[in-house]
Amino acid sequence: MTLVVATESVTKRFGSVVALDGVTFGFEAGIVYGLLGPNGAGKTTLIRILTTLLRPDSGRALVDGIDVVAQPGPARSRIGLAGQSAAVDGFLTGRENIEMIGRLYGLTARESKRRTEEILERIGLVEAADRLVRTYSGGMRRRLDLAASMVGRPRVLFLDEPTTGIDPRSRLDIWELIEDLVSDGTTILLTTQYLEEADRLASRIGVIDNGRLIVEGTPDELKDRVGGAVVEVSVPTDRVDEATAALKEIAGEPPKVDRVSGHLSIPAVRGASTLVAVVRRLDQLGIEPEDIALHKPTLDDVFLTLTGHPAEAEVTA
Amino acid sequence: MTRLVSDVVVITRRNLLRNLRLPQLVLFATVQPVMFLVLFNYVFGGSIGLALPPAAGGRYINWLIPGLLVQVVTFGAAQTALGLTEDLKSGVIDRFRSLPMTRAAVLAGRTLADSARNGFVVALMLGVGAVMGFRYQTGFLGLVSAFLLALGFGYSFSWVMATIGLFAKDPETAQTAGFLPLFPLVFASSVFVPTQTMPGWLRAFADHQPVTVIGNAARGLILGEGALPAGHTVASEVRGAILWIGLILVVFVPLAVRAYRRAVA
Ligand SMILES: Nc1ncnc2c1ncn2[C@@H]1O[C@H](COP(=O)(O)OP(=O)(O)OP(=O)(O)O)[C@@H](O)[C@H]1O
Ligand SMILES: [Mg+2]
Question: What is the SS3 assignment for A63?
Fold first, then answer.
């Protein structure tokens, strides 16, 4: 199996800060690879090296079999980049932005125009296409930025935190766009701070912390190590026994119980449906929960499990 | 090669559109130079008029306009530093650097667009100047040559500003750093007043620095040899001006390109 993106012991320092501390990883074409890590982990630095913006201090980085340090030119015609801040031009219209990038990928004026229409359609920005981008919302700018990165039909797309700082509705739009692209055969490396995002989009996930890749695997493998979502419920202490029996029935295994606080939890194997089942059952029994929630594992849980410390503690800079 | 040309055209067009659509840029480009012209002409005109050589035709504005051409293009070049740092900050340069485009195109497109803007401003100044009484004393060809010379100097100075901007990296620093060389160059020159009245040490600098040389060349081309300091000819000033422009380009184009390669890296 040939790897479309591969690095070998890549290191990068900024003064005394070690941004990347020997990263070796790789993945095959046609998938979304999710690079998961907290602020300052080294995600952007790795993307910048792979997209020829930064030279590593040591190690090798290949994209589509091409060494990005030795042959940055050929590498660039195979990649598309949507950086951490939407690098679109506020004083151009959406259409002008994409057409410009198309021309810079080497498309003729006519090709670039045609491709731009195609992409505007795809990202749902046809109506806003002739407005200056500075009037766009954050979500629209992100979508446009993504669009710009795909004009040249690159083999590999690099998306640096494509949904950070935008509302849930726009996030969903971007997720759908990414899924759409992958089904067309584009390979994508995306970074994120949200486990949920990596879980939904990526078929392989690497967790990066302090410049090191601390674990790699499929989302399921990762979740197995961290534990999946759980339903947590607090009931009055005199109803704990009844609630324990009810939850055991739903989960098919005994819940974790804290008798003193009246706190119980079971794995939410069916996600929100498990939560609904619990609510129904407790209601039938006439048990009034004091608190009930579906707790999905977060990046913090991953870190707690894998490193024994929460993600935030890592940010020193 | 065709790729280089098309990339430069695309980037130049983008920067020109930006120049046109940025309201404060349009304002800066038009109001400020005109304000300079009006202020200098009416504030200093009266007192300086007496010390002018006869070639100025007795009007300060005839002396002032050739100098202002150079002042305006020099200040205008500072826009190159600002524009580049804004693009650095917004991530646009990162995107460009990740594209399979000609690397030099980003800088070439920026300096060309800023020169086009300079051309517009200088033409506007000549128009407003004519309304205020400016008349060229040689021929139309002289005026056009002076215009082109000033633009050429502005273009070369854009590369100086590009270098400064790429080292400064953020717009705030570029703003300050970019204007640092501007003030001594523009004010310790023959742009506003003849250099004869300056103290010796300052005059030594003022007489030989590029803004004076370009200013003198423009003045000679527009007003004739009589407007130049004793012993200078129009031909020698023009030669000096072209030399300065060439020298600045030879030094700063490679410097800027190197700084661009390394910027943010
Ligand atoms: N140009 C630079 N100069 C100095 N230090 C830098 C530079 N770029 C990154 N760093 C440092 O390198 C480390 C990794 O940064 P990087 O931007 O790669 O993290 P990240 O995972 O992308 O974080 P975030 O989620 O905040 O974007 C951080 O400690 C950061 O401060
Ligand atoms: Mg980052």
Answer: strand
Number of Cβ atoms within 10 Å of the Cβ of B104: 15
**Ligand 1 atom closest to A20 (CA):** 14
Residues lining ligand 1, Cβ inside 6 A: A 14, 17, 19, 37, 39-45, 84, 193, 317
Q: Which residue has the tokens 């970074």?
A: A191
ipTM here: 0.85
CA atoms of B119 and B128, how far apart (whole Å):
14
Q: Supply the pTM of this predicted model.
A: 0.83
- Ligand 1 test: best mutation among A43, A50, A159, most atoms within 8 Å of CB? A43
Average pLDDT score over residue span A205-224? 88
Contact A306, A225 (CB under 8 A): yes
Separation CA A49–CA A90 (nearest Å): 27
A90 phi/psi in degrees, rounded to 5? -60, -25
From A10, A11, A14, A312, the mutation candidate for ligand 1 (largest count of ligand atoms within 8 A of CB) is A14
Which of A168-182, B47-61, B120-134 shows the lowest per-residue confidence on average (mean pLDDT)? B47-61
DSSP A255: P
Atom of ligand 1 nearest to the CA of A12: 12
Q: What are phi and psi of A228, to 5 degrees?
A: -85, -165
Hey, are the CB atoms on B265 and A53 less than 8 Å from each other? Answer: yes
- Cα–Cα distance for residue pair A259/A84, rounded to 1 Å: 47
